[in-house]
Design goal:
- The complex is a heterodimer of chains A (294) and B (192).
- Chain A contains 13 helices and 9 strands.
- Chain A has 294 residues and is α/β, with parallel strands linked by helices.
- With 192 residues, chain B is an alpha/beta fold.
- Chain B has one domain: Rossmann fold (3-Layer(aba) Sandwich).
- In chain B, the strands form 3 sheets. A 7-stranded mixed sheet of chain B has the order 2-1-3-4-12-11-10.
- Classes of the chains: A alpha/beta (294), B alpha/beta (192).
- Chains A and B meet through strand 1, helix 1, helix 2 and helix 12 of A and helix 2 and strand 7 of B.
- Chain A: GO terms for molecular function: pyridoxal 5'-phosphate synthase (glutamine hydrolysing) activity.
- Chain A: Its EC number is 4.3.3.6.
Chain lengths: 294, 192
Amino acid sequence: MAQVGTDRVKRGMAEMQKGGVIMDVVNAEQAKIAEDAGAVAVMALERVPADIRAAGGVARMADPRIVEEVMNAVSIPVMAKARIGHIVEARVLEAMGVDYIDESEVLTPADDRFHIDKKAFTVPFVCGCRDIGEATRRIGEGASMLRTKGEPGTGNIVEAVNHLRLVQSQIRKITSLSDDELMTEAKEHGAPYEILLQIKKEGRLPVVNFAAGGVATPADAALMMALGADGVFVGSGIFKSDNPSKFAKAIVEATTHYEDYALIGELSKGLGTAMKGLEMSTLSASDRMQDRSK
Amino acid sequence: MSIKIGVLGLQGAIREHVWALESTGAEVAIVKKIEHLEGLDGLVIPGGESTTMRRLLDQYGLFEPIKAFAQQHPVFGTCAGLILMAQQIEGQKGPHLALMDINVRRNAFGRQVASFEAELVIEGVADDFMGVFIRAPYILNVGQDVQVLSVYEDKIVAARQGHFLTCAFHPELTNDYRFHHYFYDMVRAYKE
């Protein structure tokens, strides 16, 4: 008997993306550029995060026509974003056959208390996290993949670095705790105890963890890999740069060969200007997408 | 006799194959560049995105060296690896490495929501093997030199041709390493 939507099948899908780059696209043409550059998947959106930031207002699930257009354009997997807690947007995307749903703080949350019960879905979910508490709560809700939140649409890597470093160091701490200390650790992080036990046993998260939120250059992508990310999401970084096709290819290569610094230097030559970027201190509290969920 | 097996390490489920192969007692190496092929007795091409892997194979000049390596050594391709090894890919102009006389269909079971796991009978390996299929391909038909090892709902999902082994599912995603042991035995026999 065939079983669909098992943990193994949902998490396994993310395992296949490891070492790769997932790119935000807003139409078929961009999706093809991403696929040709070697992206392992594309995220179909109505606007990239930098434009969502600029536009203001309420950001919702993309027009299904855009998602459909992207699905028809490429043979690599297609992801799409649903608002946090918006069960119906997620069900619509699942019914359309998208391969992965990002329950994302880039969109305006539909529920400021609860996330989607992702275990109830056949389609797998990816969610953002800033620390081990958020990471394990999302896994507890059924997320099959994680990514750092970073600060989307800024082209500034600092927050993604903070989030990845924090999660990694918290994992290292958990592996060193005794079982009785672990319960207090769980309490302090608001983390499901069973998942912390699993992390302690395996020495790693039970799902893949990508970097996201601020990757703008090949060196940024390689930095996140060097810090232990399983792969990289690039949102605004590619199609807000001078030469998207070249940027996309260079970021893919730098992700694969993140320890080959001569190569990264070579492929960063003459790339043109990266997206402009924002300094964190210029963001007001309401501009910080990462604070939209816990 | 010590056996050394490489895992193509461009993208995808690399570490899972490394763990599975280590359980056979083989020495395992990750292959990212041409020089990493040296001294290997066999090679695994893992699951991942076949389009991405092909692009990276070309970029690093690994394509021809792996083809040449395959003429002299056993190769095992899983999922995306199966697509890379096929001589014919439905609806696509040319093949990739074209190692096995098989005709394959990509994403043949549907998109991710149709991904599944099911128990398989694999000739010479197991009669209760849990196959994890993720946006998986299957083999439409095989040439006369190809031995079909497993069929799921009339679709060919594992096959062998001489020193080439392939499957549409992901044996690296379970803790059942019998298929990897089968490949290890192939590599060992070939070396002898």
